[in-house]
Amino acid sequence: xxxxxxxxxxxxxxxxxxxxxxxxxxxxxxxxxxxxxxxxxxxxxxxxxxxxxxxxxxxxxxxxxxxxxxxxxxxxxxxxxxxxxxxxxxxxxxxxxxxxxxxxxxxxxxxxxxxxxxxxxxxxxxxxxxxxxxxxxxxxxxxxxxxxxxxxxxxxxxxxxxxxxxxxxxxxxxxxxxxxxxxxxxxxxxxxxxxxxxxxxxxxxxxxxxxxxxxxxxxxxxxxxxxxxxxxxxxxxxxxxxxxxxxxxxxxxxxxxxxxxxxxxxxxxxxxxxxxxxxxxxxxxxxxxxxxxxxxxxxxxxxxxxxxxxxxxxxxxxxxxxxxxxxxxxxxxxxxxxxxxxxxxxxxxxxxxxxxxxxxxxxxxxxxxxxxxxxxxxxxxxxxxxxxxxxxxxxxxxxxxxxxxxxxxxxxxxxxxxxxxxxxxxxxxxxxxxxxxxxxxxxxxxxxxxxxxxxxxxxxxxxxxxxxxxxxxxxxxxxxxxxxxxxxxxxxxxxxxxxxxxxxxxxxxxxxxxxxxxxxxxxxxxxxxxxxxxxxxxxxxxxxxxxxxxxxxxxxxx
Length: 558
Ligand SMILES: CCCCC/C=C/C(=O)SCCNC(=O)CCNC(=O)[C@H](O)C(C)(C)COP(=O)(O)OP(=O)(O)OC[C@H]1O[C@@H](n2cnc3c(N)ncnc32)[C@H](O)[C@@H]1OP(=O)(O)O
Ligand SMILES: Cc1cc2nc3c(=O)[nH]c(=O)nc-3n(C[C@H](O)[C@H](O)[C@H](O)COP(=O)(O)OP(=O)(O)OC[C@H]3O[C@@H](n4cnc5c(N)ncnc54)[C@H](O)[C@@H]3O)c2cc1C
Description:
Layout: H1 7-20, H2 23-34, E1 40-43, E2 59-63, E3 68-72, E4 80-81, E5 92-101, E6 104-114, E7 127-131, E8 144-148, E9 151-154, E10 164-165, E11 171-172, H3 182-212, H4 231-266, H5 272-300, H6 303-307, H7 313-321, H8 330-349, H9 376-403, H10 408-440, H11 445-465, H12 467-472, H13 478-495, H14 499-504, H15 510-513, H16 524-533, H17 544-555
Parallel strand pairs: 1-5, 2-5
Antiparallel strand pairs: 2-3, 3-9, 4-8, 5-6, 7-8, 10-11
């Protein structure tokens, strides 16, 4: 769980080669990387810049006389900073640098760069590399720093699947300006399943423990209850179980779309890029945020023992919450989706609704009301309504500011909180819709029934959470919200008998969970005592600090 020093080799280095290196280049590099003869990472973020890639300071200047690129980090803020596996493990990196050819700045491009000797593993001349120090979590990964002092690499180390620099310095442009960002889009496409998995681990621990832990009474005179029988406990945990499933289903879809994108890009069709970028930007933001919230609730649901490292939930939290920052800080990514939403509104206003992609077509269709008692489809219409309402509101605010003479960037900044709200609602609609579609496709009737209960719980929980938007324009009445609340409580109780099976179905082994509270056999108390006894502080009865500090203090006559 603390991460693996070679994680980025598989998660970003190899995928960056697959997506961005030419077939010819990959004949040289890919097999070696796959066999782990060379170990790589993805070095993009710098000390001074991570979000704003256009301002990266590392330069790769083409020297036509030697047909080499000269990599250079001109000042302290240009040092690469954060890349996982860079500090100590990797001997190669895909380095993102601003490419300069014939004095023209051509923006961020990716280069394969050797950092360390393949035999001695010592860093090469012109390279400064090391580890950035302990972090909140992920401490088994050597996130690193990297500097270049006019370090030369061959021209052919520019990844040339989509753009090229010819020996004479002629630049051949890629078919899409942002195609070099594909390694990030890939990771974002995979994040919903990865985060769903973190959430699932925390919930497995909390739900299992909640059936072992007995405390207090629901009805007086009976045996103390399992804490999972409290409605508040169910409310804390079950909606997150639904989310863990929902994120996984949404993630399967984005992974499929990324694979499709890769194939299409190879045939020169880049039309899916904008859609997938917008979708994955929103999804990674919403999913990581809700996962962090869900894990923290799972920890609190374990009471005092949740705070002990024996629960292991704090470690899961530390790793998962990194996702709110890496692969694009969440606010920054929500604003990327917002650009797409605003453009869609502008298209509708220009009478071009027919050109809208399938995920935003609903923005053009007004619905007057819904009959929630008819089922999940009506909930979807309600989600569409709140997302449409907020998207239009935020867009109109931005467009009005523009019309009043504000500069585009200033108008954008002044509308940005509203815009991020629109992005979240749009993404939550997408998650609910993929959840619904995925459950509809389940063939086994018994499985389908349980998942349908989870889906109902999810849509009621989500709609209640968005209630202010729906009440704002009178789309939902307060009696409709009462219905939603009743449904929510009904499904909490209905799911209770299946709760343990729902988490057990993820099939995490005790070794994976590493949690005393979440043990499959439920022997929590004996093992908590054994775990505490194994604490380093208990190796001796009397600590050396007694002689050194406590006794002088206790014997002092002051
Ligand atoms: C096991 C643990 C693993 C952890 C691994 C972690 C790895 C990392 O963290 S790697 C580093 C990740 N870094 C980031 O994610 C940086 C975030 N920043 C960006 O991605 C970009 O800077 C940006 C997208 C926020 C902005 O890029 P910029 O070039 O400045 O583009 P504009 O804002 O001007 O937008 C222009 C235009 O391009 C569209 N666009 C941007 N990115 C993409 C893309 N990937 N695909 C398709 N289109 C893209 C953007 O939407 C704009 O479109 P229009 O609105 O139509 O103009
Ligand atoms: C665990 C971990 C692993 C990582 N692994 C890698 C890796 O392998 N390779 C790699 O290259 N990088 C890696 N990174 C770096 C990571 O991708 C960046 O930290 C991330 O993209 C955020 O960029 P930043 O640090 O510049 O944040 P900043 O942009 O400085 O964010 C600071 C604040 O400014 C706000 N902000 C910034 N720009 C805007 C804007 N335009 N509009 C509104 N608000 C804005 C943000 O929302 C945030 O609140 C990793 C980071 C972490 C934490």
